[in-house]
Amino acid sequence: MTRATARSRKKPVIYPSLEDTIGNTPLIALQRIGAESNRERGNVVLAKLEGNNPAGSVKDRPALSMIRRAEERGEIKPGDTLIEATSGNTGIALAMAAALRGYRMVLIMPEDLSIERAQTMKAFGAELILTPKSGGMECARDLADQMVAQGKGKVLDQFANPDNPRIHYETTGPELWKQTRGRITHFVSAMGTTGTITGVSRFLKEQNPEIRIIGAQPSEGSRIPGIRKWPQEYLPRIYDPKAVDELVYVSQVDAEEMCRRLAREEGIFAGISAAGACWVAQQIAAREQDATIAFIVCDRGDRYLSTGVFPA
To answer: Which residues carry this modification: N6-(pyridoxal phosphate)lysine (predicted)?
Structure first.
């Protein structure tokens, strides 16, 4: 037998696809922000780097989950048109997932969101429809519903789709539990669609009901991309109020300043909602002792460059 023949009979190497790289993101300890106080109080503050996902945010997880499970149920098939209202990260993640699995993606978003987000969605082949700034995400959601009613496509509806929190129950929560060796005492997340906090809470509470789940919400008058305080009639249907033990309000000023500090002091180039969650985590750390506090770094800072949050 020749060497060439022997090589041809070996089992083929199976390499991962891009989909296989979603999740299992790093969990790292902050080194400088709040370091002295945390040492004195025996606390550690941990950042889960969801910007390491292939499309750059925590939304990669539910985007692929919603498409895959809809396919499994026979609700959609490659070639269909998908419609989704988004403030940015879910849209980018869905645009990537649609490109991977062969869908036409139509995304509806308010016109005042960062140009980097819109450009990234288009790069993945998505079509964009912009709604008036004054209408916010509520207007975008209403238009998505109208288009579906008119037969222009099918909506996955991140705000009502149980496959959104389900993927965080199946992956994000178990990762946090494993990475902290079960020592996590507090989990902090920005609240937008509420999929992350709802799914992670469900898993962590099953492991240890004493774990505290804290949601970061914008203070009155603050506009923080990715963090929302919804009017009652638009509250996401996937949200379970019992999943969240406490709401802490963060101002736009504090979130933006923390965004710059994370980059300058920790080398973490994060988005504004992630910085808001970090600010909340520091408030929790200031009142606790011997705590292991983890927060979600939802995305990367490069999609906020045009907002002026970082110095030119």
So the answer is: 59
- Kindly give the pairing relationship between strand 292-297 and strand 154-155: unpaired
124-183: pLDDT as tens digits: 999 999 999 888 888 988 999 999 999 999 999 999 999 999 999 999 999 999 999 999
193 is in an annotated binding site: yes
CA–CA separation, 93 vs 303, rounded Å? 13
Whether 195 has a binding-site annotation, put simply, is yes
Alpha carbons 296 and 288: distance in angstroms, whole number: 19
134 is catalytic: no
Residue ranges of domains in the chain, CATH in brackets = 18-52+171-297 (3.40.50.1100), 59-155 (3.40.50.1100)
Q: Which one from 57, 59, 114, 222 is the annotated catalytic residue?
A: 59
Annotated binding residue at 194?
yes
Residue 59 appears among annotated catalytic residues: yes
| Type of residue numbered 164 | N
Asked whether residue 87 is marked as a ligand-binding residue, the answer is: no
Q: What is the CA radius of gyration of the chain?
A: 20
Query: Catalytic one among 57, 87, 114, 273?
Result: 273
Q: How many CA atoms lie within 13 A of 86 on its CB side?
A: 28
Hey, what are 113's tokens? 């969101």
pLDDT of residue 112: 79
3-class SS of residue 96: helix
**DSSP states of 16-46 as a string?**
PPGGGGSS---EEE-SSTTHHHHHHHT-EEE
The Cα angle at residue 90 between residues 154 and 301, in degrees rounded to 5: 160
Mean pLDDT score of the chain, rounded to an integer? 93
196 assigned to a ligand binding site: yes
pTM of the model: 0.92
> How many Cβ atoms from other residues are within 10 Å of residue 116's Cβ?
18
d(CA 172, CA 48): 9
